[in-house]
Design brief:
Blueprint (H helix, E strand, L loop, with lengths): L1 E3 L29 E6 L4 E5 L5 E5 L2 E6 L14 E8 L2 E8 L66 E3 L13 E3 L8 E4 L6 E2 L9 E3 L7 E10 L2 E5 L3 E4 L12 E5 L4 E4 L10 E8 L8 E6 L3 E4 L7 E10 L10 E4 L12 E5 L4 E4 L13 E8 L7 E6 L3 E4 L7 E10 L2 E2 L6 E4 L12 E2 L8 E4 L11 E10 L7 E6 L3 E4 L7 E10 L2 E2 L6 E4 L22 E2 L19 E7 L7 E6 L5 E2 L7 E10 L2 E2 L6 E4 L12 E6 L2 E5 L10 E9 L6 E6 L3 E4 L7 E10 L3 E4 L3 E4 L9 E5 L16 E6 L8 E7 L6 E3 L4 E4 L7 E10 L10 E4 L11 E5 L4 E4 L6 E7 L3 E7 L3 E4 L7 E10 L2 E2 L6 E4 L12 E6 L2 E5 L11 E9 L2 E8 L3 E5 L7 E10 L5 E3 L6 E2 L26 E2 L5 H28 L1
Parallel strand pairs: 2-7
Antiparallel strand pairs: 1-8, 2-5, 3-4, 6-7, 9-12, 10-11, 10-13, 13-14, 13-15, 16-17, 17-20, 18-19, 18-21, 21-22, 23-24, 24-27, 25-26, 25-28, 28-29, 28-30, 31-32, 32-35, 33-34, 33-36, 36-37, 36-38, 39-42, 40-41, 40-43, 43-44, 43-45, 46-47, 47-50, 48-49, 48-51, 51-52, 51-53, 54-55, 55-58, 56-57, ...
Length: 1073
C-alpha cells in the first residue's frame, strides 16, 4: 500500500517529548468519563461489579464503563494478545487484538503504560471466562474516522499536514505474512506514525526528506492507520489526518505439527489445529507421510477435516507426518515433521510346554520363546493348568518372564493338562496346544499284617494278607513275603514274590516259631514292611524215650526210676516241649501194663512193690500233639521201701484259734520210722509243711474262728519218706466279730431320711466286719464319756442331741451271738453350728399405704412374714430393709422374721405390730373468685367428704408476689372478702386438711392459684391498711413464706435431670469406653 500526502510546514510552539529508542511508542490519551469495551463474536468478557458479583458478557457486544477520574481500568488479557484503546466519536474503546512477532522492528506495538500486557487475574476471576479473542477477519475490523490528536496537556496542536494520499500498489511476496506499501512524500523531515488503531499510533524510524516510504513486515489482510507530521529539529508539528489502508490476503501460516489421538497396530488417528488463515478462509489441508521407510513424503490425505485416520499400516513401525494448509491465495509451508509409532502385535502362540522333571507332588515345565519377535520385545508368560474331573477348566498357575516353572502342591499320580500363553504390551497370544502330564505315583503303604488261613499244620503254613490301604496312586504289581526264625541270626529270607495275596509256606519244621512279614512294590517304589506275624507250626508226637535207669540200689518195696530228657532222653521231642511222662509197669513181660506215674517230673518212685519181686517198666513222653511210642523195657527187683501211709490224723479243738492234731505210726516196710511231716492249710489243695519231727502229734495255733482246716501226715524212714496219709478236716468254732472298718461321717444327701437338726446330729456310716462264724446282731457306738449306744444290724446311724459346733471321737464295735468284738479306730467328727437367731424388726418409715422395715446387720439371709390372718412370706433375701406396699391407711399389721445361713433356717421371731399412717386430703381445684360489689369478693372452692369420720378443714392463702398471707382457716367452703383493693399480681389458693381424733391435722397440697379480678378505678385514695380486713371468723391473718407446689415440682425435676446426666456421663466413661 502506498500512502501519499501533501507536506505542510507548521511552526510548533513547543517541542514534543520524543524517545530515541527504535521501538518507542507515543500514547495520546484523552481524559473522558465513558470507556467502551468492544467484545468480538465468540469471546467472553468477565467483569466484577462494585457489589462483588462477577458477570460474564458474550460477544458481539459493547460494554460501557464509567471512569470518574478518567483513568483506564486494567484489562486482563491472555498471553499472545494485547489491548488497544481506540477513540471513536469522542468515546474511547478498548480492543483486544492478537499480538504477533512479525512486526517491523521499528514499530513494535507494546500496550499502554497504564494497560499491562497480561496481569494475573483477580482471585475472584480464576474460575470465570476470560477474553481469548481469535483471529479477526477483515469484515470485523471497524473503519474508524481520523481521531483528534492531543498533546500531553490536553491542548490541540496547531497546523497539521494534510491527509496523505494513498496510492495502493500491493504485490504478494513469497512470505505469506509480509506485505509492503510505498508512500510518496513531497517534502523532507516528516516522521511517519503507523498503527493498527486510529487513536494509538506507532512511531516509525523514517525521518528523511523523501516523500516516499516503504513499510514492510505488515500483517496480511489487516487494516492499518497512518499519519504524518512535519518536524524541524526537535520541534514537531501537529499530525495530519489519519489515513487507513488494508493489506491484501496471503496464504495461511504454517500449521502446528499434527498430534496422535489414537493408535493401534495398523491404524493411526491424527488431529491438527487450524493455523492463521491470513485473511482468506482455509479450504483444505494436505497431510503427507514417509510410508515408514524414511524416504520422500507422499500425500495421504487432502480435505477440509481437521482429523484423519490412516489405515493399513505396519505394526511397530515409525512413521513421519507433516501437514500444510491451503486457502484461495495458495498453499502454506509444511509444519514441522511429527514422528509416531504404530502399536505392536500380540505374540504368536508359543509351542506347547514340555516336562522337565516330575515328582510325587510337583512338576517342572519349560517352554520356548515364540517366533516372530523383534529385538527388544519383553514377553510375559502365563501357564494355565486344568485338573481332571474338577470341571473348572484352565486356571492360571504362573505369570512371569521365566521360561520354566515348578508347580508344587499337586496330587500324586494325577494327570494335569497344561497350556502356555505369551503376552507383551500389545496383548496376549492364543494359548498353545494343551499337553497332558502326570505326577509320579508315591510309594504304596505297608500291606496288612499277614494272617493264617485254616489250621496250623506241622510242616506248612497258609498265609494271606490284605492289600495296602494307600496304593500310592498306582496299582501294586508285586508282593514279597519274607520269613525268619526267632533265634536265627541269618535275618529274613524271601519265600514268595508275586502278584497274589496268599502263599503256602511248606518244608517247615514242626513246632518251630516263624516270623512272617510282607511288603509290596508298585511304579512308585517299594513300601515299608508290614507288621510281622509270629506263628508256630503244629508239633508232632515225640519220639521214643530211652530205657529207664535205676537211680540207686533196689529196696524192699520201692523203686526210684529217675530219667532226664535233657540228656538225650528223647530221640526227638516232636517240635513241642514234653508236657508229661507216663511210666507203665507190669509184673511180667507179657502181663498187662498199668500206669503208676504220669507227670512232668523226670524222676518217680514206684510204690507198693513187693520186695524181691521182678517188675518190668516202660516210659513214654507226650506233648500237645499226642503220645509218643514206648521206650525199651527195663526189668529189676525191689528193695526195702519207705513206710506206709499214715492214717488220718485226729484233730481236737481246744479254742477257736487252737487245734491239737495226733496220728498213729504206720508200717515201716523194713526200716524204722524216725520222722513225721505234717502239712496244714485252709484249703485242701494248698497245704504247706507245718511240722517235721519224731513226735506223733502237733498243736496248731493262731487259727481263724469258724474256718475249715485240712491236715495230713507223712512218715519217713531210712529208705525215704512214705506217702501222705488221708486228709483230715476240722472246723474251728465261731468267735466274736472282727473290728469295724471304714467308719466315716456322711452328709444328709447320702441318707434316705433327713436330719432333724444338722447342728445337733452326726450321720455315721461303716462297713460290716467279718462275723467269725456268728451272725452280727448289732453294734455299739462310743462317742464320748457317756455309755455307748447299741443299735441294730445296720451300717449307718444318726447321732442326735449333740452339742452344736463340738468335736467328738467316735468308735464302733460289732456284736454277734458269741460276744462283743473290738472297737474300731477313733474318728474325729464335728457338729455344725446352730442356725442364727431372728434379728430385731423395726419400722424405719410409715406411710399411708406402705411400711419400710429394717432389721439387724449380718451375713445371713432373712425371710419376712406378715400375719393376715396367717403368716405369709413377703420377702426372702440378703437385704436388711424391705418396703411393704399396697397397705391400708391407719391399719395395724403384724410381722415376724427369721434368719437362715449355711447351718440352716433359724426360728421365727415374735410378732411385731406396726401401723400405717393417715393419708392427707387430695389437692383441690383452683378456687373461684366472684366480685359481688366494689372491693367486695366471694371466694368459693370444692368441699371434700370426711375421711374415715375425720372432719375436713380448709386454709385460704393470698399471694402478693413472694409474700403469703392466710385469709381464712375453717370448715367452710367459701369466704367473703370486704374492703379490699386488689393489685394485678395478687393470687388466691386453697388447701384441705384432715383433723385426726388425736388433734393432729394432716394438710394436703395447695390447689393451683387464681388471680383476683382487675380492680375498678379507685374512687378515693384510701390507705393500704383498709385492704387488709379481718376475716369473718375473727382469726388474724398471718404470713407464710413456704415454697409453692409448682416450685417444689420444678426443683424435684431439676434434681432428677442432674442425677440422670451424671449417671449418663459415668456410664459413658467407665462402661462404654
Amino acid at each position: 500500500v502506498i500512502l501519499t500526502w501533501l507536506p505542510q510546514v507548521v511552526a510548533l510552539p513547543t517541542a514534543l517529548p520524543f524517545s530515541p529508542l527504535d521501538h518507542s511508542v507515543t500514547f495520546i490519551i484523552i481524559t473522558l468519563q465513558m470507556i467502551l469495551v468492544q467484545v468480538n463474536p465468540g469471546e467472553t468478557f468477565t467483569i466484577r461489579t462494585e457489589d462483588g458479583q462477577v458477570r460474564c458478557i458474550t460477544g458481539p457486544a459493547h460494554v460501557p464503563m464509567v471512569s470518574p477520574n478518567g483513568t483506564m481500568p486494567p484489562i486482563y488479557v491472555p498471553p499472545g494478545y494485547m489491548s488497544q484503546v481506540v477513540e471513536e466519536n469522542g468515546v474511547r474503546k478498548v480492543m483486544v487484538l492478537p499480538q504477533t512477532t512479525e512486526f517491523h522492528p521499528s514499530m513494535p506495538p507494546p500496550p499502554p503504560l497504564h494497560v499491562p500486557q497480561y496481569l494475573p487475574p483477580h482471585p475472584a476471576m480464576l474460575h470465570q471466562h476470560h477474553m481469548y479473542p481469535r483471529e479477526m477477519p477483515p469484515h470485523f475490523m471497524h473503519q474508524l474516522p481520523p481521531p483528534q490528536m492531543y498533546s500531553e496537556q490536553g491542548e490541540c496542536l496547531p497546523a497539521c499536514p494534510p491527509q496523505p494520499a494513498l496510492d495502493v500498489q500491493c504485490a504478494r511476496n513469497l512470505s505469506p505474512v509480509v506485505s509492503q506499501c510505498s508512500i510518496a512524500m513531497t517534502d523532507s523531515g516528516y516522521p511517519v506514525l503507523l498503527s493498527l488503531s486510529s487513536s494509538l499510533m506507532t512511531f516509525s524510524s523514517h525521518r528523511g526528506l523523501e516523500t516516499t516510504f516503504t513499510v514492510e513486515d505488515l500483517r496480511p489482510a489487516t487494516a492499518y492507520y497512518i499519519k504524518v507530521c512535519a518536524s524541524c529539529g526537535s520541534v514537531k508539528g501537529p499530525s495530519s489526518e489519519v489515513a487507513d489502508f488494508t493489506t491484501m490476503c496471503a496464504p495461511p501460516e504454517a500449521p502446528a505439527p499434527p498430534r496422535v489421538i489414537l493408535h493401534s497396530k495398523s491404524t493411526l488417528v491424527l488431529q491438527w489445529k487450524a493455523p492463521n488463515d491470513n485473511g482468506s478462509k482455509i479450504t483444505g489441508y494436505l497431510l503427507e507421510f514417509d510410508e515408514g521407510k524414511q524416504s520422500a513424503f507422499k500425500e495421504v490425505y487432502f480435505g477440509h477435516a481437521k482429523q484423519y485416520k490412516i489405515v493399513k499400516l505396519t505394526p511397530s513401525t515409525n512413521y513421519a507426518f507433516r501437514i500444510a494448509a491451503k486457502n484461495d491465495i495458495g498453499m502454506s509451508a509444511f509444519s514441522e515433521v511429527m514422528t509416531c509409532c504404530t502399536a505392536g502385535s500380540a505374540p504368536q502362540p508359543p509351542a506347547p510346554p514340555r516336562l522337565s522333571a516330575s515328582g510325587v507332588s510337583w512338576l517342572t515345565l519349560e517352554w520356548n520363546i515364540p517366533g516372530g519377535l523383534t529385538a527388544g520385545d519383553t514377553l510375559t508368560y502365563t501357564l494355565e493348568m486344568e485338573e481332571e474331573g474338577t470341571g473348572y477348566g484352565f486356571k492360571p498357575k504362573y505369570n512371569g518372564e521365566e521360561l520354566s516353572c515348578t508347580l508344587k502342591g499337586l496330587r500324586r499320580s494325577t494327570s494335569y493338562r497344561f497350556r502356555v500363553l505369551a503376552a507383551n504390551a500389545e496383548g496376549r497370544s492364543q494359548p498353545s496346544v494343551p499337553v497332558e502330564f502326570s505326577t509320579t505315583p508315591d510309594k504304596p503303604g505297608a500291606p496288612g499284617r499277614p494272617a493264617l488261613r485254616g489250621r496250623v499244620q506241622p510242616r506248612c503254613l497258609h498265609t494271606v494278607w490284605d492289600a495296602p490301604k494307600d496304593d500310592g496312586g498306582s496299582p501294586v504289581t508285586q508282593y514279597v513275603l519274607e520269613m525268619g526264625q526267632n533265634h536265627n541270626d541269618n535275618g529274613w529270607e524271601v519265600v514268595y514274590s508275586g502278584p497274589l495275596r496268599e502263599h503256602v509256606c511248606d518244608s517247615l519244621k514242626p513246632g518251630t516259631w516263624y516270623n512272617l512279614r510282607v511288603y509290596c512294590q508298585s511304579a512308585g517304589g517299594q513300601s515299608q514292611a508290614s507288621e510281622s506275624l509270629t506263628v508256630q507250626t503244629a508239633p508232632v508226637p515225640p519220639g521214643p524215650c530211652q530205657a529207664l535207669q535205676l537211680a540207686g540200689k533196689a529196696r524192699t518195696k520201692r523203686k526210684e526210676l529217675p530219667f532226664n530228657p535233657a540228656v538225650a532222653l528223647l530221640a526227638w521231642d516232636g517240635g513241642a516241649p514234653v508236657s508229661q511222662y507216663i511210666v507203665e509197669m507190669s509184673d511180667s513181660t507179657q502181663g498187662p501194663h498199668r500206669t503208676f506215674y504220669q507227670g512232668l517230673e523226670t524222676d518217680c518212685s514206684a510204690c507198693q512193690l513187693v520186695p524181691g519181686h521182678k517188675y518190668c517198666f516202660w516210659v513214654k513222653a507226650a506233648n500237645q500233639a499226642g503220645w509218643g511210642p514206648l521206650s525199651e523195657m527195663y526189668e529189676f527187683s525191689t528193695a526195702p521201701g519207705p513206710p506206709e501211709p499214715c492214717g488220718p490224723p485226729q484233730l481236737a479243738v481246744k479254742t477257736p484259734t487252737c487245734v491239737l492234731a495226733s496220728w498213729e505210726i504206720p508200717a515201716c516196710n523194713g526200716a524204722e520210722v524216725f520222722e513225721f511231716r505234717m502239712e496244714w492249710g485252709a484249703a485242701e489243695g494248698t497245704l504247706t509243711l507245718t511240722y517235721c519231727g519224731p513226735a506223733p502229734g502237733y498243736e496248731a495255733r493262731n487259727l481263724l474262728p469258724a474256718t475249715a482246716y485240712y491236715c495230713r501226715v507223712q512218715a519217713v524212714n531210712s529208705v525215704g519218706a512214705g506217702p501222705f496219709g488221708d486228709v483230715a478236716m476240722v472246723t474251728t468254732p465261731p468267735s466274736v466279730p472282727a473290728a469295724v472298718r471304714s467308719v466315716a461321717v456322711v452328709g444328709e444327701d447320702a441318707l434316705a431320711e433327713s436330719l432333724a437338726g444338722p447342728a445337733s446330729c452326726l450321720a455315721l456310716r461303716w462297713e460290716e466286719p467279718c462275723s467269725h462264724g456268728a451272725e452280727i446282731i448289732g453294734y455299739n457306738i462310743d462317742f464320748g464319756e457317756q455309755v455307748p449306744i447299741s443299735v441294730g444290724k445296720t451300717n449307718h446311724y444318726i447321732l442326735e442331741n449333740l452339742q452344736p459346733d463340738t468335736t467328738y471321737r467316735v468308735r464302733v464295735q460289732a456284736i454277734n451271738g458269741i460276744g462283743v468284738g473290738p472297737f474300731s479306730a477313733s474318728l474325729k467328727a464335728r457338729t455344725r453350728p446352730l442356725p442364727p437367731e431372728p434379728p430385731t424388726l423395726e419400722c424405719a418409715a410409715a406411710g399411708p399405704q406402705s411400711l419400710k422395715l429394717k432389721w439387724g446387720d449380718g451375713p445371713s439371709r432373712g425371710q419376712l412374714r406378715i400375719d393376715c390372718p396367717r403368716l405369709v412370706c413377703i420377702y426372702s433375701g440378703p437385704c436388711h430393709t424391705f418396703k411393704v406396699q399396697r397397705l391400708s391407711e391407719a391399719t395395724v399389721y403384724q410381722f415376724s422374721i427369721q434368719a437362715h445361713n449355711e447351718a440352716g433356717v433359724g426360728p421365727l421371731s415374735p410378732l411385731y405390730s406396726f401401723s400405717t399412717s393417715r393419708s392427707p386430703p387430695p389437692q383441690l381445684k383452683a378456687p373461684r373468685v366472684d366480685q359481688l360489689e366494689s372491693n367486695h369478693y366471694e371466694v368459693t372452692w370444692e368441699a371434700l367428704q370426711s375421711m374415715r369420720g375425720d372432719p375436713i378443714v380448709y386454709t385460704l392463702q393470698l399471694q402478693r408476689g413472694r409474700e403469703l398471707e392466710q385469709l381464712y382457716r375453717g370448715p367452710a367452703s367459701s369466704y367473703k372478702w370486704h374492703g379490699v383493693v386488689p393489685v394485678c399480681d395478687w393470687r388466691l389458693r386453697v388447701c384441705a386438711g384432715r383433723r385426726c381424733p388425736d388433734g393432729v391435722e394432716l394438710w394436703g397440697p395447695y390447689s393451683p392459684s387464681i388471680a383476683l379480678p382487675g380492680p375498678e378505678p379507685p374512687a378515693a385514695s384510701e390507705s393500704v391498711a383498709g385492704s387488709r380486713a379481718t376475716s369473718r371468723d375473727g382469726v388474724a391473718p398471718r404470713k407464710d413464706r413456704a415454697i409453692t407446689d409448682e416450685q417444689f415440682a420444678l426443683l424435684l425435676l431439676l434434681g432428677f435431670a442432674i442425677v440422670a446426666i451424671l449417671f449418663a456421663v459415668l456410664i459413658q466413661y467407665f462402661v462404654i469406653k
